[in-house]
Design goal:
Length: 307
């Protein structure tokens, strides 16, 4: 019974941190264009709460053991034999597009756009791809996630593309493997990075599984080299990139504002898209994901019950 107050304090601290981060992010997003979205997936919240409690990230428990990264760093325990081959097989299944015609179509269009582009990280490139996907009938949007410092996870921001088809959301990343690159990777870990395609299109639940697999493998790789996992490569931080509060915009206001319509059209063609017949892929201008800003107390309670 004596441990109950400690547990309660940890839960209260997690709630306070989450509420503070949500409030700050909401205020930051108010000043930018686009519609607000925040995940209502219970597993997202549960992961965040578990990460916060288990790593002792809150100020009231600075001396708590950091289970995520430090508990087995002495090398006394390791993953069972066959771990890397099993992880590789699971990852291959998650990144493949076979059997999903929507994925195949999206990836085909984006690959065409990237065919002659050396730097896919150039400013405005993702917005241009989003615009071209919309021109080809997809309900595509440019998503900008942003989050405040949460425990030991630093503040950050990320930009990616999404596409909604019949109320199914697909997340598009131009270099997903690069998001998981680390210093001094083992041969086994590097073999996982090589599995990622240049263009990734996947459902949120698939990306969540990928993130969990890669963060666990990352920890094993770095542990074998006597390295600590940096805050920006921990599960909580990595998941925030795609599952934190985000702004979604569907306009192309930053694409050559001062250029004429013909010049703008030529610019779009220059990145690789060819003129295609106007075919609708369930693009609904009025479609808005069923999401609400903020954390729900009921969901938070359920998350703690699972932990």
């Amino acid at each position: 019974m004596a441990r109950i107050p400690v547990r309660f304090n940890k839960i209260a601290a997690a709630f306070d941190e989450a509420a503070r981060a949500s409030t700050v992010v909401a205020r930051q997003c108010e000043s930018s264009s686009g519609s607000d979205h925040s995940s209502e997936d219970l597993s997202d919240l549960s992961d965040l709460v578990n990460s916060f409690i288990e790593t002792g990230d809150h100020e009231g428990n600075k001396t708590a053991p950091e289970k995520e990264d430090d508990e087995h760093d002495d090398g006394s325990e390791s993953e069972p034999e066959g771990y890397w081959s099993e992880t590789k097989d699971a990852l291959k299944q998650l990144v493949k597009n076979k059997g999903d015609n929507v994925k195949v179509k999206i990836v085909g269009l984006v690959e065409l756009a990237c065919r002659n582009v050396l730097d896919m990280s150039s400013e405005g490139f993702k917005r241009r791809i989003m615009s071209d996907l919309r021109d080809n009938g997809f309900d595509a949007g440019l998503c900008k996630s942003r989050w405040e410092k949460f425990g030991r996870h630093p503040a950050g921001r990320h930009e990616y593309i999404d596409v909604n088809v019949n109320r199914t959301r697909y997340i598009i990343e131009l270099n997903l493997g690069g998001e998981f690159e680390i210093a001094r990777p083992t041969t086994s870990y590097d073999s996982l990075i090589q599995i990622f395609p240049r263009i990734f299109a996947g459902k949120p639940e698939e990306l969540k599984q990928i993130t969990r697999l890669m963060c666990k493998s990352m920890r094993e790789s770095m542990k074998s080299n006597g390295l600590k996992v940096p805050p920006w490569r921990r599960l909580g931080y990595m998941q925030a990139k795609w599952f934190a509060h985000y702004k979604r915009t569907t306009n192309d206001e930053n694409l050559d504002k001062n250029a004429s319509k013909n010049v703008a059209t030529a610019t779009k063609r220059s990145v690789g898209f060819e003129e295609l017949p106007a075919v609708s892929f369930y693009c609904r201008d009025g479609f808005v994901a069923n999401s609400k800003i903020g954390l729900k107390v009921g969901y938070l309670s359920a998350a703690f019950m699972q932990s």
